[in-house]
Structures are given as structure tokens and as C-alpha cells.
Specification:
The chain is of the alpha+beta class and 218 residues long. It folds into 2 domains: 4-98, Ribosomal Protein L25, Chain P (Beta Barrel), CATH 2.40.240; 105-205, RNA Polymerase Alpha Subunit, Chain A, domain 2. It has 5 helices and 12 strands. The two termini are 31 Å apart.
Length: 218
């Protein structure tokens, strides 16, 4: 896992008026909290933060946060919550959680199919990604950026289940049900296959939901 550097400054003001003023100045409010620290209000350069989000996405994002005025000390943090406006254009607020590199964390990691399956190429089948993300439990330094699944040998009717995915001893995929992650369906599968996939997803969605994150009141 690569730690991405992000600079920030401390702020003393809060509230909607202060947040609007920050956004007019091309900055955005944020807060960092953790089990061994008091919450610390921050100000981020919107353009710098936006570039990181566009390049890396917001899921499972670990950062090396350099806070000006904090004796040049860096904090390793994880992006826990990102609030945006109604149209998904403007950043409203970011919540960061300070982490210990030796402590296990739960992170959502994207699924990435690799190759073109035999069932799709030769028989006109369709690749269905039932789970586009999987939650993993590991130390921050062991967090994979993505979970690649080779589908080249898959034929129509084949499926990859969660228990078939091996990420090594350092990374665990918690699950109670051996659910389907990827499958190849016939070209005429139609709505029945989609409904079955949706039903399977809903049956065990509780087992794959992450811990709720409290929204900032700022």
C-alpha cells in the first residue's frame, strides 16, 4: 500500500458560514480524530485533495497527512467520510481517522476482472460482477489497492465465489456465506439472472457492510 501525502493547516473556525468562506477561497474543511487524540479541525487545499480523489478514488484511501504548525509531524490517516453537495460536484467536508500501522482495519477494495473469458469471447456470454467491492481485514500496510480476478478460463455457467479468492495470510475477507463474486451467464439470461443476483446480494448484505461512520456536525 502506498501512502499518499496530503498537506493541511489547522483551523479555529467552524460552522456553515466559515465553511462557505473556505470554499470561496478554494479550500475545504476537514477533521481528524482517533482513539488517542482530541478531534483536530483542518483546512485542505481543494485542488490537491481533488487530484488525489480523481487519481485514487475515495474507497480505502490511506494518507500521510502533513499538518502545518504541528512541528512537521505527519499522521497516517484513513479517509472515513466524504460529504459532497447534492450534485456530487463540490466537496463539503472530509473526515479522517488516525490509524496505527500495526492495528487491523476494515477496508473496501474494488474487484477488477482480468482478461476476457472464454464464455464471453467464444459463446457470446455476459460477464456479471455481483460484488464490485469486497471488505478485507488487514493491517494498513497490507491493504491491496484492488482484487484482480482472472476470468480468461471461465465458461458460461462458471462462477467465482468468495472462498476461492486467496489474498494471502495477511489479508482476510470476512464472510458468513460463500457468495458469488463474478459469474458468466448466457447471452439470453435476461432479467431472471439479474433478479437472482440481486436477491443473493441482498441476502448477505449485512455481512459485508462496513461500520457506520458518524457524520460531522460542522
Amino acid at each position: 500500500m502506498e501512502l499518499i501525502t496530503l498537506t493541511a493547516t489547522k483551523r479555529d473556525t467552524k460552522g456553515k458560514g466559515a465553511a462557505r468562506k473556505m470554499r470561496r477561497e478554494k479550500t475545504m474543511p476537514a477533521v481528524i480524530y482517533g482513539p488517542k487524540m482530541d478531534p483536530l479541525m483542518l483546512c485542505l487545499e481543494t485542488s490537491e485533495f481533488d487530484k488525489i480523489i480523481r487519481d485514487r478514488g475515495s474507497s480505502g484511501l490511506f494518507l500521510n497527512l502533513k499538518i502545518q504548525g504541528e512541528d512537521a509531524k505527519s499522521k497516517v490517516v484513513m479517509l472515513k467520510d466524504l460529504q459532497m453537495d447534492t450534485y456530487g460536484i463540490e466537496y463539503i467536508h472530509a473526515d479522517f481517522h488516525q490509524i496505527d500501522m500495526d492495528t487491523l482495519v476494515t477496508v473496501s477494495v474494488p474487484i477488477v476482472p482480468v482478461g476476457v473469458s472464454k464464455g464471453v469471447k467464444d459463446d457470446g456470454g455476459m460477464l456479471q460482477i455481483i460484488r464490485r467491492e469486497l471488505e478485507v481485514v488487514c493491517k494498513p500496510g497490507d491493504t491491496p489497492e484492488r482484487i484482480e480476478i482472472d476470468v480468461t478460463g471461465m465458461e458460461i455457467g462458471d462462477a467465482v465465489h468468495v472462498e476461492e479468492i486467496d489474498l494471502g495470510d495477511a489479508v482476510e475477507i470476512p464472510h458468513d456465506v460463500n457468495f458469488t463474486v463474478i459469474t458468466i451467464v448466457p447471452p439470453d439470461a435476461g432479467e431472471d439472472e439479474e433478479e437472482l443476483a440481486e436477491e443473493e446480494l441482498m441476502e448477505d448484505v449485512d455481512e459485508t457492510e462496513g461500520e457506520p461512520v458518524e457524520e460531522s456536525s460542522e
